[in-house]
Structures are given as C-alpha cells and as structure tokens.
Amino acid sequence: MTTITSSSTVVRSYRSRRFSWGKLFVHLTLGLIGLACVIPMLLVISVSLSEEKQLALRGYSLLPVGFSTFAYTYILRQPGQILQAYGVTLGVTIAGTLAGLLLCSLLGYALSRKDYRFRGVLSFYVFFTLLFNGGVVPFYVLMTRYLGLKDNILALILPYLVTSWYVLILRTSFSQLPSELLDAARIDGAGEWRIFFQMVLPLSKPVLATIGLFFILRFWNDWFLALLFINVPQLYPLQYLLYVLMANINFLASNPQTTGVPIPTQSARMAMAVLAFGPALFSFLLLQKYFVRGITIGGLKG
Amino acid sequence: MATTSQSAVLRPPTTKKRAGWLGSQRDFQSTVTFTLMALPGVIMLLVFAYLPMIGLVIAFKNYKFEQGMLGSAWVGLDNFRFLFGTDQAWRITRNTLLMNSLFITTGTIVSLGIALLMNEIYTSAMSKFYQTMLFFPHFISWVIVSYFVFGFLGGEGGLVNKMLISLSLEPIAWYRSPQYWPAVLTAANLWNGMGFGSIVYLAGILGIDPTYFEAAKIDGASKWQQIRYITLPLLLPLVIILVLLGIGRIFNADFGLFYFVPRNNPQLYSTTDVIDTFVYRSLVQLGDIGMAAAAGFYQSVVGFLLVVLANWTVRRVNSDYSLF
Fold it and tell me: Which of residues 248-277 of A touch B (CB under 8 A)?
C-alpha cells in the first residue's frame, strides 16, 4: 500500500493541505471508528490498574479508579502457572512456525515446479481440503483414539503445520521467481535441495515473513486445540489459561502461598488478559505491514 | 529479451519431452526429489485432513471408544433421526444462518464505507494511523475479546450498565437476556473484521484506473457523484464475489466468537447456539458422539454443497475471482 501512495504524494500533498469540511468529516468519522477499535483494550488495561474496592463501588471506567498495580503484583507473586503457560505458548509458537514454514514451503516449492510430474494431482490434493473437511468429531476421534495425542504437547502443533491455504500462497509466490536464475544454478551443478535452500528460500524472504506471521499469530492465539485435547494444567497454553480464568479466577489461588490474601478478582482477571495480549500487540505493531501484504497476495487464485 | 531467449537455449533438457536416455534419467531423478520434498506435507494432510473425511462414517455408527471407528456397530440413520427429532437441530441451523447473514450484510456495508472514507484521505499522514487502529482487533483472539465484551456488559461494573444508570435507565442483565445477543455478536464480529475487510476493498478502489476520476473531475463531478458513478460500479464485481464466498461459508460459524463471547452460557443458547458450538458441546461436554457426529456430517456436506454452488455462481460473474 505504501508504494501506491508514495508516487502520488508529491502531487497531492499541496492540495490536501487545504481545509475542507468534507475532509474534516472523514477524519472525524475514521477517528471515532478507530477509537472504537482500541477502546475495549483501554478499558481492560484501566480495570487491571484499578483498585479492587473502588471497582466494586464505582464499576469499570476508562480511566483507572484509584490507581493500583496490586493485581499485577498479586499475579506475579506466584507466577508459576503463568510462566508455564507462557512457556508452552512460546515453545509451540516457535516450533510450530519453523516446522510449518519448512513443510509448507517444501510442498509449495514442489507444486510450483512446472517440470514436476505430479504437480497437477498434488495441487488438487492440497486444494480439495479447502473445500471439504471432516469436521471436529472425526478429528477428535483420530487424535485421541488413534494417535493418542490427548494431553500431549504435539497436539497443539501438528494439526496446524500444513495449512493448505499457506501452501497455495507459497506455491504462487515461488512460481513467480525468475526461472533463469534457478536454471543457471542447475547448470552450475546445484542439486534441487541446494537450489531450494540456498536460492529459493533466501529469494522469498517477504512471502516467508508474511506466512511466518500468519503462523505466529495462529499458534499464539490458539485455544481451540487446547480446548479439545489438553486437560492437564502443565500443558495449558496462554489463551486457554485465560479462558479457564474467565470461568474461575480462583484457579490462580489454588496454590498454598497465596491463600489468605483476598483475590482481587476483577482486576486480576483483566491483568491476566493484558499479560496475554501484550506480546501480540507488540508483534502486531512491528509486523503489521507484512500482514497487509498477506491480504493482497491471499487474493491470488489457487 | 535477449537474455531470456539465450537461457531458453541453454536450458537443460529437463523441460523437453523425450530428451533421450540421459534426459529421462534426469526427469526421473527430479521427480523423485520433488516427491521427497512434497512428501512430509502430503503425509500431514493425509493424516489431519483426509483421514477425518473418512471418519465421517462415525455419523452412521454407534461409536464406542473401545471398539474404535471401524469396530463400532452400524446404526444407519439413527443418529440423524435423533438429531432432527429434537428442536435443537432447527435452532442451531437457524442461528447459524441468521447470524452469518447478519455478519455478511453488516460486514460488507461497514467495510465498504470505511474503505471509501480511507480512499478520500489516503495520502494524509493520519491514514496509516487509522489503519493501524482499525486493524488491531484482527490480532486479538476471541478469548481476549470475551474479556473486552465482559468489561462492557459484565455483571458488577460493566461500562454500558453504568452509562444506562447515569442516564437514569434500567440496567440490563446482559448475560441473562438472549434477545440482545444477535446485536452484541454482530458488533463483536464487526469490530474484529472491519479493518481486514476495509483493506481488501481499499486495495480494490486503489486498483481503479485514476484517469476515470480525473476525467470526471474535469467534467465537474462532485465527490459524491464520483463515488456513486465510478467507484461503486467498478467495485461491484469484487463486492459480489466476496459476498458470494461469504454465502459459501454460511453454514460454518466462527466457533470462538459464539463460544467465548457469550461465555457458553446456557441461558443465551436460544440465540447464540450455532452448529459448531453444538457439535463441540455434544462431543466434549456431553460425550454424545453420535449426536455430534450427525450434526458435524450435516454441516460438512451442506457446507461443501454451498461452497461449490457459490463458486459456480462466482465463476459466472467473473471467472478471475472463482476459487476453482
């Protein structure tokens, strides 16, 4: 999007400086909508920084009522459960993203090669899974009864590794690499594996960044697999812990060191939410542009 | 140009058919290599996508964990008879279709509106800022959205009830009043999706040939006339296609939205229970695998037919946008 804007900026910036009621209206409307998008987050942050007693008296508000960081100190006093959930989520995200990128790009590369004999068949094999799926029940039975992945950390990683949509995006992107370059490498005696790892991947950094970001968000924000397959608290990922806490904040207080202290129920709950989306927010601000690009390449035909 | 033709000459015989013994040896080798590359991914899809398709037969069985998928007894259509014998089947079908229709309609109108506004100021420094704010909700999981919604509607101190009281109106017990939830869920869905949708439409608008607008300006067309007679008509195919693709997925609800945001509250089921939440609840919480499998089968098959139908329609509108 930036490339499109920059070319015309020079011409238009002079004109857009002029005041007009129409422009003011547009800015006001977009500003209000934008505000509506971030206000829920501000509310949650504000509640997490409020005093528990004041919350009970005066309710939630967009500015902290009686500023206090007690909710955070309460949670972090006994951080075992949260750190563990962070660890699970972080491990799953890193392992899943790397393995997923590798498997998807290997498959995508094979499908992008016009001289690959099974290209057509396998492309359909990948594509068909976008149209039809067995749904949750057979998936659940397969994972628990046949693969024995209940309460196994692999259950949080394996099902998402090969995502057809990402494979097709990568295939399209790889097929647009200049074939002269790859041919030249072949003439110089490089094998297909070497071409893939030393030429194709380095040349495809932008699309790999985009798909990598898709993977990161998918693993970081996932609760679904935990909801189905994880029952032991040691394997709770962050989002699932958060869900459990929504239903039952006392889960935090189940360790002996914190009993006796009254739980700041409301603010602690919101503080947990802040601790969970903080890193996601940060990576969002950092990597937003890759995501925007992902939307546009996502529109390519499969 | 010269370089391309030269490299076509230099290209190794792999691309030529029947290039002799050496060539076909090469072909064979590269086929093996590419197959090895594809294999891990192919196996993963086989296990996690294709085996569950076969597993759909569970819907016609009295599934017992110990007997497994193949060992369990066939029961014909019993599970379906049971499912459609209750009024739940109707309720979840209605909720899924109605809520998704609401989402498609509101999502399209709002995203389109935002894209039009964005387009008016997209050279201004502020536009990046607005885009960031609008896009932010897309990065937030439904679990966290459920906290956000709770902050507004929640029991003891929710912001909305506080405002109602300050306007001397009666506070509302949101989590016990199913009639408000179609609106709440629509708002949550819009909040989550409008940034994404507006970027898709904005990209469509930016793709329109600027000379149309320049010519219109010279002819004295107002901003509104330009939108009415240039932008919207040229954007129409994209809108139709996105709506049709939405309709193709209308049988699949966003599980996280319908499960977490109403907090899986039985008092709200009359408006918030959709096929996906029903399947999950039957499967994991009630352990009624037969019922869950029947509902899942129903969803998979109808969903598949709708996708194919929607795609067929899209292809008739504009084959560039069809999925296949």
Answer: 266, 269-270, 273, 276-277
